[in-house]
């Protein structure tokens, strides 16, 4: 009986088919803006695909190409401006294929030394953007959620070492109301309470608002407060908290200072807005997602620590079958020692290859392009009578409203544009004068988006 690991004619033909598809997809700069179908409908179209004897590689691939991929939304479409889209470089996409083909386990240097070396080259650049001290470093994770969680576990474990009584206390974190949902989710996972606060005007965490909140805590709550999570670019509006002032308060109050820059961290490479991040260099830990604004394929996040030893103390796993990885003969940088995952693929390799191929200057240019598109969108909105800016652009996010529209109008407009395969732009909410207002939102990541795309989308609101 033929083994499923054997190399035969069917495998060769399957390889050629897949490579042909990949080449065609990578070279397609404007793929169809597909839309999802209900699970029941997909099941009727393709049937059961996992069977005892299999349906064959050719049939499975046909179903994917003809049905299943067409029920998915390509995040790199130039008129996909919803959520936080992505636009991985062709180089990064190709090397994602190489990463899988190379079949390297990236948890320990003993098994993944060469690949980890490449990841670390890319990480050096990320760390250099933050301005953190010389010994700061980081590791690649599956995304911002895993990065935030890894950082908070390191923070909590460090806090517990400061006083034995802390081990019996339920920890407490302060963050802003605009913080990403993963921050609140992270608090649940580590069984910590969370206080959300902002200045109620710009919807950012300010030094004054933070200090006032800390000052009003009870003695018990102050004792269990261990960290502050600031945001370096909220996903809804691109708002950057007062990082510098927050850092000084955290230093005085002896609190761990974490900055969630999962979306906004890419802008650290853009000179036009880099000053807005003043104070990030004082953070104890930082989250950045290369699969957002650094043009990597999913899934690639990163967590960076000022003191790597504190992270290692929290995350390094022990087990008899793992002892060899700690042996002198296998020594090297072990990424699994600094984040929650043990088994890991080399997520940073596609970013490394793209950086090595194009150079960091090209990254700066592409990120500045997203910022420029946001400014152009604001200018166009100001010149059109039927739409109105909610606030000035925050990084590459633009909030605006169609005058006279209801929440239902925004919903119907979103579905109409998507159903027609024209654009995907979704509504959000913004609090103005204590009123939670529905509005539209652009988020510019893809440098292939054009000013004409923006104009055409705005005209669909007429």
Describe this structure in words.
- It contains 16 helices and eleven strands.
- The protein is an alpha/beta fold and 462 residues long.
- The strands form two sheets. It has a seven-stranded mixed sheet with strand order 1-7-6-5-4-2-3, sandwiched between helices. A four-stranded antiparallel sheet has the order 8-9-11-10.
- Helix 6 (144-162) packs across helix 12, helix 8 packs parallel to helix 10 and helix 14 runs parallel beside helix 16.
- The relative contact order is 0.14.
Which residues sit in consecutive blocks of at least 5 with pLDDT less than 50?
none
Order of helices and strands: HHHHHEHEHEHHEHEEHEHHHEEHEEH
**Regarding CATH, which class of the largest domain?**
Alpha Beta
Tell me which oligomeric state these chains represent.
single chain
CATH architecture of the largest domain: 3-Layer(aba) Sandwich
Count of distinct strands:
11
- State the share of residues found in helices, binned by percent: 40-55%
Structural class: alpha/beta
Residue-averaged pLDDT: 95
What are the main properties of this structure?
alpha/beta; 462 residues; 16 helices; seven-stranded mixed β-sheet; 42% helix; 2 domains; Aspartate Aminotransferase, domain 2; four-stranded antiparallel β-sheet
């Amino acid at each position: 009986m033929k083994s499923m690991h054997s190399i035969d004619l069917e495998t060769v033909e399957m390889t050629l088919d897949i490579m042909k598809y990949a080449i065609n997809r990578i070279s397609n700069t404007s793929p169809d803006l597909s839309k999802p179908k209900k699970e029941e409908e997909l099941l009727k179209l393709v049937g059961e695909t996992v069977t005892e004897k299999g349906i064959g590689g050719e049939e499975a691939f046909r179903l994917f190409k003809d049905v299943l991929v067409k029920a998915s939304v390509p995040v790199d479409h130039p008129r996909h401006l919803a959520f936080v889209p992505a636009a991985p470089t062709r180089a990064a996409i190709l090397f994602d294929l190489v990463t899988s083909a190379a079949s390297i386990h990236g948890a320990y240097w003993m098994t993944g030394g060469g690949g980890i070396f490449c990841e670390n080259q890319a990480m050096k650049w990320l760390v250099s953007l933050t301005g953190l001290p010389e010994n700061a470093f980081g590791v690649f994770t599956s995304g911002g959620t895993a990065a935030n969680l890894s950082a908070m576990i390191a923070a909590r474990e460090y806090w517990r070492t400061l006083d034995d009584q802390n081990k019996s206390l339920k920890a407490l974190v302060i963050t802003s109301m605009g913080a990403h949902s993963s921050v609140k989710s992270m608090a649940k996972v580590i069984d910590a309470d969370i206080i959300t606060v902002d200045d109620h005007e710009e919807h950012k965490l300010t030094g004054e608002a933070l200090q006032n909140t800390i000052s009003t805590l009870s003695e018990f709550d102050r004792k269990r407060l261990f960290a502050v999570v600031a945001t370096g670019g909220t996903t809804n509006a691109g708002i950057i908290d007062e990082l510098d002032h927050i850092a000084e308060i955290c230093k005085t109050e002896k609190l761990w200072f974490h900055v969630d820059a999962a979306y906004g961290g890419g802008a650290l490479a853009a000179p036009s807005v880099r000053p807005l991040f003043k104070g990030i260099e004082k953070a104890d830990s930082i989250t950045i997602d290369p699969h957002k604004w650094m043009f990597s394929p999913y899934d690639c996040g990163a967590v960076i620590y000022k003191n790597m030893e504190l992270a290692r103390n929290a995350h390094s796993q022990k087990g008899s079958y793992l002892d060899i990885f700690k042996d002198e003969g296998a020594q090297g940088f072990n990424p699994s020692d600094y984040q929650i995952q043990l088994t890991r693929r080399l997520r940073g390799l596609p970013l490394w290859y793209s950086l090595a191929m194009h150079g960091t200057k090209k990254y700066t240019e592409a990120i500045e392009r997203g910022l420029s598109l946001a400014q152009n969108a604001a200018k166009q909105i100001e010149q059109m009578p039927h739409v109105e800016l909610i606030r000035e652009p925050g990084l590459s996010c633009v909030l605006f409203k169609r005058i006279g529209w209801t929440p239902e109008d925004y919903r119907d407009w979103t579905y109409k544009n998507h159903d027609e395969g024209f654009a995907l732009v979704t509504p959000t909410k913004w609090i103005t004068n204590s009123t939670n207002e529905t509005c539209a939102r652009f988020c510019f990541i893809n440098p292939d988006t054009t000013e004409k795309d923006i104009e055409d989308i705005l005209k669909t609101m007429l």
